[in-house]
Specification:
Helix content: over 70%
Structural class: mainly alpha
Number of strands: 2
Largest sheet: 2 strands, antiparallel
Strand order of the largest sheet: 1-2
Pfam family, one: MerR_1
Number of domains: 2
GO molecular function: DNA binding; DNA-binding transcription factor activity
Keywords: DNA-binding
Shape: elongated
Radius of gyration: 21 Å
Protein name: MerR family transcriptional regulator
Distance between the termini: 67 Å
Length: 121
C-alpha cells in the first residue's frame, strides 16, 4: 500500500513514516515509479517503533536492537532481548535520576516561593 493508506491504517503520519525510513528503522518496498510500498509486516514494525518511541526510548536504541528482535530467528533472539532489556533498564535508571534531580529543583523553587510570599505579607 502507498504511504497515505499506510498512514491511515497505522495511525502514524506520512512524515513519521518517512522519518522512520530515514533513520533506518523501516525499509518499505518500492513500486516501479519509485513510490513507497508498505506491506503488513512493515506496518506491524511501525506500530512497535511507535510504541517504543512513546515510551521514551531513543531512536538510537531502537535502531540497534530492533533487527535482533524482529528477525524471527531464535539463535540471536535471546541475546538481543537480554541486551535490549539491559539497555532499557539503563535508560530507565538514567531517567529516574533526572526525575530525582528535577524533583529536588522543584522543591527548592517551592521553598523559595514560599519564603518570598512570607516576606511580601
Amino acid at each position: 500500500m502507498k504511504i497515505g493508506e499506510a498512514s491511515r491504517v497505522s495511525g502514524v503520519s506520512a512524515r513519521s513514516l518517512r522519518h522512520y525510513e530515514d533513520e533506518g528503522l523501516i525499509v518499505p518496498g518500492r513500486f516501479g515509479n519509485g513510490f513507497r510500498d508498505y506491506c503488513q509486516s512493515t506496518l506491524d514494525r511501525v506500530l512497535v517503533i511507535r510504541s517504543l518511541l512513546e515510551s521514551g526510548l531513543p531512536v538510537r536504541l531502537i535502531r540497534e536492537v530492533l533487527p535482533g528482535l524482529a528477525d524471527g530467528s531464535d539463535a540471536g533472539a535471546d541475546v538481543a532481548c537480554t541486551e535490549f532489556l539491559h539497555e532499557v533498564q539503563s535508560y530507565r535508571d538514567r531517567l529516574a535520576l533526572r526525575i530525582a534531580v528535577l524533583s529536588d529543583q522543584q522543591a527548592a523553587l517551592d521553598a523559595y516561593l514560599q519564603a518570598a510570599r512570607r516576606t511580601d505579607l
